[in-house]
Amino acid sequence: QVQLAESGGGLVQAGGSLRLSCAASGRTISSHAVGWFRQSPGKEREFVAGISRNGGTTRYTDSVKGRFSISRDNAKNMIYLQMNSLKPEDTAVYYCAVASGAFISVAVGSYDSWGQGTQVTVSS
Questions:
Q1: Which among 38, 54, 65, 66 has most CB atoms closer than 10 A?
Q2: Parallel, antiparallel, or unpaired: how do β-strands 3-7 and 58-60 relate?
Q3: Is 4:113 a contact under the CB 8 Å cutoff?
């Protein structure tokens, strides 16, 4: 099983930017879709963004379209989430995840490897 470690979270003012990184180890993730999810206190974990195994297809939840961008570097076994124009409602713990297959899914159950999460807090 692959191990995932997120970094790059922190405290930022509304309108600011953060770039999250996720380092994968243990095995290559190049044959799998990967995604970012987030979870706020009292809420279910929700899909934020996903990218296909070769990076050719991306998918975003409506609330982050035009503000967030997911990318990956298969040579480095890395996943990224660039977050711009951040809003207080983006505050959450952000998790990277590797899907069991090659195609993007918004379902938590489609992902079999998860990081520990990184906190993102956006102040108003």
A1: 38
A2: unpaired
A3: yes
Token code pair at residue 4: 């995932």
Q: Are 90 and 13 in contact (CB under 8 A)?
A: no
What is the token pair recorded at 82?
A: 């660039």
Sign of the alpha-carbon torsion through 61, 55, 70, 39: positive
What 3-state DSSP class applies to 74? coil
pLDDT tens-digit readout, 86-117: 999 999 999 999 999 999 999 999 999 999 99
User: Cα–Cα distances in Å, from 36 out to 24, 43, 124?
Assistant: 13, 16, 23
Token pair belonging to 7: 């970094």
All residues at 6 or more sequence positions from 119 whose CB lies less than 8 Å from its CB, including other chains: 9, 10, 92, 93, 94
